[in-house]
Design brief:
The chain has 364 residues and is α/β, with parallel strands linked by helices. It is 38% helix and 18% strand.
Length: 364
């Protein structure tokens, strides 16, 4: 195993980029399915190290970004209840719904709190037994174990004033939906290392076999990313499909079995709407019937229905990998981190935020 500093070693990165260039005989298009990887690619200029013809396109790898507008609206409605405390991750507070965001709800008098973990919301509930504490829980399989542990602990301790507004999503069904889309240009995937740390790689194997694509699990540092790209190009050039693990220092084939067992106890697989992609079958996690008493959507009479995205915002096409953020006419002009039109400009893992930070308008 390399020392941690080696994963940012410029010479090793250049060597991998040169190996990719030597191996390529034709153009290839790869998609990374992780917002953290997108930011790493832009921050370190990984895409600019690749030979002409190897294109990286950015997928729906930001859980904040794929949370539908109606769930933001539901969170805002709960935040306006005088008996409620609405808690969530910091990124969620600035994501626009159809009627403002959670920061505006707080300015209007709602009790909205930014927390690092759903487990922190349990203490808020203990400290305020006369209030309903709701954690707005979003994320891929990476954050789902902490959500599962929070609701499991709440039930074990008899904490009745705690509930969850759940919008967890699963990565593999989204990858299948992208591959089946008419405009799909994806020839290989870089899979998200942190998701695979929890879930392992077995869920990706049927996708690779059925759709004849290489899927390479990789990390987030420059050398990680280039090693993943190199392996994916090798597989494409030799006509191979399948799943390869280039993040072995963190990812085991079966993942974290304790975390998976807890998730299986607390959650059930459901259909879920994704911003920009629509409803994807079996792509979500909802609370299982044994934990339904902790479901905020059942506990509170919410009146929110599905709402359309603003026409000016192109985040849906960005999330599908159909355009790059800087190809959106509003990018950096009508849509900025200070005045975002969509979630991809707000979240710390959003592709538009990455471009605005590392490739701002006017920079070549």
């Amino acid at each position: 195993m390399r020392h941690q500093s080696e994963y940012r070693n410029p010479e090793l990165a250049r060597s991998l980029a040169e190996a990719i260039a030597r191996r390529c005989t034709r153009p290839w298009t790869l998609m990374e399915v992780c917002g953290g990887q997108t930011h790493g690619i832009l921050k370190y200029g990984v895409d600019r190290m690749l030979p002409e013809g190897v294109e990286l396109i950015h997928g729906p790898g930001c859980p904040v970004c794929v949370t539908p507008l109606e769930y933001i609206d539901k969170a805002i409605e709960i935040a306006h209840r005088p008996d409620a405390i609405l808690c969530s991750f910091g990124d969620m507070l600035r994501v626009p719904g159809s009627r403002g965001d959670l920061l505006l709800a707080r300015a209007e008098g709602g009790d909205v709190r930014s927390l690092y973990s759903p487990l922190d919301a349990l203490q808020v509930a203990r400290d305020h037994p006369d209030r309903e504490v709701v954690f707005f829980s979003v994320g891929f399989e990476t954050t789902a174990p902490a959500t599962a542990m929070a609701v499991w602990q709440a039930r074990q301790s008899g904490l009745r004033n705690f509930s969850l507004l759940v919008s967890h999503v699963r990565v593999p069904p989204a990858m299948e939906a992208l591959l089946d889309a008419p405009e799909c240009r994806i020839q290989g995937f870089l899979a998200a290392g942190h998701v695979c740390t929890v879930m392992g790689v077995t869920e990706y194997e049927p996708i690779a076999d059925a759709r004849h694509v290489p899927i390479v699990v990789t990390g987030f540092e420059p050398v990680d990313l280039l090693a993943g790209i190199h392996r994916c190009i090798e597989m494409l050039e030799s006509g191979q499909s399948g799943v390869e693990n280039e993040y072995r220092r963190m990812v085991q084939r079966e993942g974290n079995q304790a975390a998976r067992a807890l998730m299986g106890q607390v959650f059930q697989v459901i259909d879920r709407a994704w911003r920009g992609l629509g409803v994807i079958p079996r792509s979500g996690l909802g609370l299982a019937e044994d934990f339904a008493d902790f479901d905020a959507e059942r506990r509170f009479p919410l009146s929110i229905n599905a709402v359309a995205e603003p026409e000016e915002c192109q985040s849906g096409r960005v999330l599908q990998g159909l355009i790059k953020p800087d190809q959106c006419p509003a990018f950096g002009i009508r849509c900025t981190p200070e005045h975002p039109l969509g979630a991809t400009m707000v979240s710390s893992e959003g592709a538009c935020a990455a471009y605005h930070r590392y490739r701002p308008p006017g920079q070549p």
